[in-house]
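hey so i finaly got around to running the thing on Class I SAM-dependent methyltransferase from Terrihabitans rhizophilus. pasting the sequence first so u can double check i didnt mess up the copy paste, my clipboard has been acting weird all day
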Amino acid sequence: MSLDVELQRAYYARTAPDYDSSHVFSDVEHDIAFHILAGWLPRIGVNSILDVGAGTGRAQRLAKSLGIAATITGIEPVSALRRIGHENGLGEDELTDGDATELSFAEDSFDLAMEFAVLHHIRDNAKAVQEMCRVARKGVFISDTNNFGHGSLPARLVKNSLRVLGLWRAFDLIRTRGRGFHQSDGDGIFYSYSVLDSVPLLRAKFPHIYLFSTEPVGSSMLRLSAPHIAVLALKERAGSLS
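ok and heres what it spat out for the 3d tokens, dont ask me to read them lol
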């Protein structure tokens, strides 16, 4: 296990007792994203969902409160978080151990795979997205950060310019002193990541892409102005409910 993964899992193990109050109930953008997804589920015809990086089972609790009938299986590598989920009533088969980059499920095992605020904690987030696509039949839903939409307007313009010039990764390595990851008291270990960078990977299997900003934006250019974005990628165009 690499140092960054060890540090991240240690962070969540240490902060597990406060996880729900510091992440689940304060991250409004992901609550909004889940409600967006809930509105789409009847159109897609979803009966089974894989929740990658389920934490203490936030999505499962939300689904029950909204009356969503689909079966949700959560995977979470941190045992301290799974323990809280089990204490809150989730069964061992509802919230289980798992690695987002090596999912232990066969191809097309679930109608939908989803994640909330997990990919920016995974160094090889592209591999995680590919795994989500592999195990999903109908689509993938991602709610995560857009690093190019964070900060002041000048900072965002500089970051997007570096991205266009192909210099962003080199710049990020310099500012992290070669580590390639960042660390904070509020979020543990995290990497420079944009949901929009995952869209080409999603499109390879799920060509119908729907994008949503889950926070207010200052312009229609999501990459420049939206700090958090949700994307729904579907194999088939969503049908009418009428």
